[in-house]
């Protein structure tokens, strides 16, 4: 991906509260999905969708169908980074027999949007929240607006920095059929919003359970 375009949102306290509620709910969906990944060893986005979508929709009806899809994407993307990146200490290629860790998404985890949950047209931004659409008027620079026409939009991410919310638009001049399942070199750093709980090996689990029965 090329360099992202960051847009800081000038929010009122009420708008910030709505975005914070969405951020917390999004992390809750991700955390409900993380044990599925650990148990099934599946984090392919399409396969994970088939495994979990209907259950997540029933458990989190307030989040909405498309945001559930975006949460599945977030978990898949994060797992690719933590479990497949060559610099990750949890890389499964280096330890194929090791049980998968459990990922925990903190409330500060970013929220992923797509064209169904966020639109930007003629400087008017419209984005999904738990209680309806939120709109902002944005003044885009000419060169930034040109990027939206010339480059492919790959990701839209909402995050909070120093008590202010910002949207990051990841655009890239790439083949539309490029493989999005491979972690990129720019994804080398472990995200600060993820806590990785290392899984206990089967042998260690047996020893711990046996020790618990001793007088």
Please, could you describe this protein's structure?
The protein is α+β, with helices and mostly antiparallel strands and 215 residues long. Helices cover 39% and strands 21% of the residues. The chain has five helices and nine strands, in the order E-H-H-H-E-E-E-E-E-H-E-E-E-H.
Write the layout of secondary structure elements.
Layout: E1 5-8, H1 13-40, H2 45-59, H3 65-84, E2 102-105, E3 111-113, E4 118-121, E5 124-127, E6 134-137, H4 142-150, E7 152-161, E8 164-172, E9 194-197, H5 202-212
Antiparallel strand pairs: 1-8, 2-9, 3-7, 4-5, 5-6, 7-8
Helix pairs in contact: 1-2, 1-3, 2-3
Spatially, the strands of the biggest sheet line up as 1-8-7-3
What summary fits the major beta sheet?
4 strands, antiparallel
Q: Care to count the β-strands?
A: 9
Shape: globular
> Into how many domains do the coordinates divide?
1
Distance separating the two termini = 59 Å
Please report which band the strand proportion falls in: under 5%, 5-15%, 15-25%, 25-35%, 35-45% or over 45%: 15-25%
SSE arrangement, N to C: EHHHEEEEEHEEEH
Report Rg.
Answer: 19 Å
Provide the structure class: alpha+beta
């Amino acid at each position: 991906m090329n360099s992202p375009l960051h847009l800081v949102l000038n929010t009122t306290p009420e708008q910030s509260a709505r975005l914070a509620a969405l951020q917390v709910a999004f992390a809750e969906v991700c955390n409900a999905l993380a044990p599925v990944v650990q148990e099934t060893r599946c984090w392919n986005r399409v396969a994970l969708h088939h495994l979990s979508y209907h259950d997540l929709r029933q458990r989190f009806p307030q989040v909405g169908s498309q945001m559930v899809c975006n949460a599945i994407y977030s978990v898949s993307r994060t797992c690719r980074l933590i479990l497949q990146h060559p610099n990750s200490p949890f890389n499964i290629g280096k330890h194929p027999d090791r049980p998968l860790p459990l990922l925990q998404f903190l409330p500060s985890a970013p929220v992923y949007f797509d064209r169904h949950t966020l639109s930007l047209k003629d400087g008017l931004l419209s984005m999904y929240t738990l209680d309806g659409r939120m709109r902002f008027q944005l003044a885009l620079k000419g060169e930034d607006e040109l990027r939206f026409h010339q480059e492919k939009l790959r990701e839209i991410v909402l995050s909070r920095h120093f008590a202010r919310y910002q949207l990051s638009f990841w655009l890239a001049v790439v083949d539309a059929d490029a493989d999005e399942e491979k972690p990129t070199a720019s994804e080398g750093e472990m995200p600060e919003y993820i806590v990785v709980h290392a899984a206990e090996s089967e042998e260690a689990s047996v020893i711990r359970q046996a020790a618990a029965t001793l007088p």
